[in-house]
Design a protein that fits this description.
Elements lengths: L17 H32 L15 H33 L5 H23 L17 H15 L1 H15 L7 H32 L8 H12 L1 H16 L1 H4 L7 H14 L16 H35 L7 H4 L6 H24 L1 H7 L4 H30 L6 H27 L13 H8 L3 H30 L6
Helix pairs in contact: 1-2, 1-3, 1-15, 1-18, 2-3, 2-5, 2-6, 2-15, 3-4, 4-6, 5-6, 6-7, 6-8, 6-10, 8-15, 10-11, 11-13, 13-15, 13-16, 15-16, 15-18, 16-18
This protein binds heme-as (HAS) and copper (II) ion.
Amino acid sequence: MSLALGGSAALPTTHTLAAERHTMLAFLISGFSALLVGAAIGPLQALNYAGIDAYPYLRPVLQTYYQGLTIHGVLNGYIFTFFVTCGLLVYLPARELGLPPNMTLWRFCFGVMAAGTVLLLFAMFDNSSSVLWTFYPPLQGSAFFYLGLTLVALGSLLPLPVLLDLRARWKALRPGELTPLVTYMSLTTMLMWMLAAIGVAIELVVQLDPWALGLTRTVDPIIARTLFWLTGHPIVYFWLMPAYVSWYGLLPREAGGKLVSDPMARLTFALLLIFSLPVGSHHQFQDPGFSPIWRGILTALTLSVALPSLITAFTIGLSLEYAGRLRGGRGLFGWFTALPWRNPSVAAQVLAMLTFIFGGATGIVSGSWQLDNIVHNTTWIPGHFHLTVGTASAMTFMGAAFWMVPHLTGRRLLSRRLALAAAWLWFIGMSVFALGMLWSGLHGVPRRAWVSFLPHGVYQRIYGVAHLPLALAAIGGVILWLATIAFYVVFFGSLFSLEPGQ
Ligand code: HAS
Ligand code: CU
């Protein structure tokens, strides 16, 4: 596919540099390789909840459920998303503005994150750092784990100067003109991320790195959690906003229409920049040390951060309706069925949006302090975030990969049908899995618990009441394995295919 961006600037013409494409490809392949490992481990967690303990069969590669869960969360949550984002949010603006990015800095960003990833992999696979993706003290991992995280976090900030430099050069060429949309959205995302990262940077540099190196003896866990969530909440928008860049900037044209409102897109990103920062402690509704007034304020702020996503639902919904009607769709829902469902990139992203409706709704439940009392630390929470980051973001990135791999390599997508199958299987698998997890959460089944390690009779006595939803979670997990296989056959098959693109 040709690169049709939704911004107002002219499309780049001559400077399509091979170096840019190669670097983008390196980001894409690294990110998706991390997801391959992370996604392969995911269904083990789902089977755990159905009482099936696969870990004894996986030694010596994986020792425990907690080690598997740490690798799953870190690779999917940090490495996959960061690599794809740090690639896309430089590559797309550079193409939109028609200017080459500072390649040295962009490659340095890749190098720093890659070095951090190697340290993390070492620390996680040697089973010294099974501290989960939130690495709450007093759980302690090896120094390699925290140093790896520090490097990955630092590297993920480097697209910001690359973007600022790109925009400054563009502005010098076109003084007084409005920054094109994709560049505006990418820059807002990176600005948000820079401000957000301050929390975890302080936690790592002041508390955890010295502690892991043996330079200090203790850490205050509540301060550490508060600093973590200062970043840990906005990080979910660092996962979501790049998906929104695709939904606003690319998808409406891919679907055969146009974005119906450029100002709404800009407003959404501005609101996300403001509202995603101060709400992190809604992850701490059940922690001690927060007054009821503060918890009430957090609830109100959390409901505010849902607003830009509600604006997105209407703006993108209308843009898709416009595209569907142009394609001949009639009646109340005819536009929806008239969308180009045979295009795997579009199908993956529209299915991601459908899932996000439920992801958002379950977030709003957790965002209300009183309701969060019921679902906190239960399987409801992973139910919620597999609909959001696990589908809305991940499947949007997959949809982007379906056009990017051919675009970057000049080769044909291996199989449209298999790509479509991957998208539908992911959608179905994740929906079934999330239904099971949300439902069992309402029965009080705890998250992050190696329940399958219990003797079977004890497991039955405690969790038998949630038998059906837990079985659904496992079935969803197995469907997701199939989706993963289908996706990677297409992804790597297209990379190595010998067939040139049309
Ligand atoms: Fe969340 C916990 C609240 C969004 C991820 N969240 C988590 C965790 C993760 C996560 C990973 O307040 C667990 C962390 C951990 O390990 O402990 N979340 C929210 C709220 C939102 C929200 C209010 N979360 C996300 C997104 C994530 C994500 C996005 C990742 C990408 N979340 C919470 C809370 C907790 C939490 C509490 C802590 C709970 C606890 O007890 O620990 C909102 O931003 C959601 C707004 C979204 C919407 C949906 C809009 C729908 C759209 C699609 C439109 C469809 C179209 C199709 C156009 C309002 C845009 C058209 C077709 C048609 C046919 C109509
Ligand atoms: Cu949050």
